[in-house]
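Friendly challenge for the regulars: who can give me the structure tokens for this chain first? No prize, just bragging rights.
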Amino acid sequence: MMSSDATLQDGARHLHPGPEHTVAESTPPSQFSRRRVRLALANGRAIEGNVHMTEAQSLTVFMATRRYYASLTEASWVDGPGVEVPHMAVRVDQILWAQPLERGLAVSTAQQATMNPRRAEVTMKDGTTLHGSLFIAEEQRMTDYIDSAFGFLPVHDAVVTPGGERLGGVALNADILLTIREEEGEAD
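First reply, four minutes later:
Bragging rights claimed.
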């Protein structure tokens, strides 16, 4: 007699309806978690929504792996009427930065290269200025650090000027940087 389950050549176990199996057994657990983020855009607007990423992945790495579009679920405009849409795709080249909105979502999982972060002022193509801390080795040039980035940079203790809005950690889109300069003094 034939069993109600079968293992195919690809090694996957596919269940066939039978009294000893349920549909839940045939659905593998998801490897991805929904994580709430805010995307600041070059047009001055912002979108909040969920990205779907692995638990061990940092926001900077996740954003750097988006080629043309970042996909958000349960998304809404921050300055809009609060209408949530099930899915929204956002052009990556229009994202200034991605900001985690929940505890436990790391901007970077890399070990900090130095105990004393270097403060920098970043001006973006749209004129927005951001002040923040970069964990760059003491002897490393800032330009080498930026050139080695894969699209997004982790910036800690970020503050937008003018206005002084404190963002905390963000994944900054390196492709939209106009200038970056090191600030004198240590991080606050």
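The chain has a mean pLDDT of 82. The two ends are 72 Å apart (CA to CA). Your move, everyone else.
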